[in-house]
Amino acid sequence: MNPNSIIRTYLQKIKNSKVSLHELEALFQGQPCTYEQFAQSVLELEAEGIIQMVQSKGRTGKRPSLAYQYSVQKNRLKVDTHKDIHQARMLLHPDIQLDTYYSVGAEVWEQDRPYLKRIDAYLKRGKLPTTPVPAPERSFELVADEKWITEKQGKEQSSPSLLQSMSEPRVCKRKRKPTWP
Q: Which domain holds residue 147?
């Protein structure tokens, strides 16, 4: 993995809006990465506007010179993910709602993307299901994993849009389990 993507991933995960040079350097301890490679990646992120130097903290004396502290522009980090989501919105079945993915992290989008493709293929083969079945059965039918809707990512609140198009869950009178039509 190149230094630029390692730093981007780290910046997406942190909660703070500021990051120190020391924190960024710590990402590469024990890894084969030279100072020049590291500095080049940091300077690229600076040029893209993803990180901005905190003026009051100053810069190092090394060449190339890096700032001791950076302000992280989180909205710029999400641009690539938002482009992917927008492109997927154009390609996927119109009943699949992707709005939630604009507000969650890129890792959630990447994790759910294969499932979205499976649901898209299912919807393009026919139309929305009309008969209620137990959730594990519908889950297997949609994504070939019977536990996905009830126990895995399909249940998580971070990605509810996956199932909005499959209608709200209903309780099956026989089994008292949530079902999706």
A: 79-180
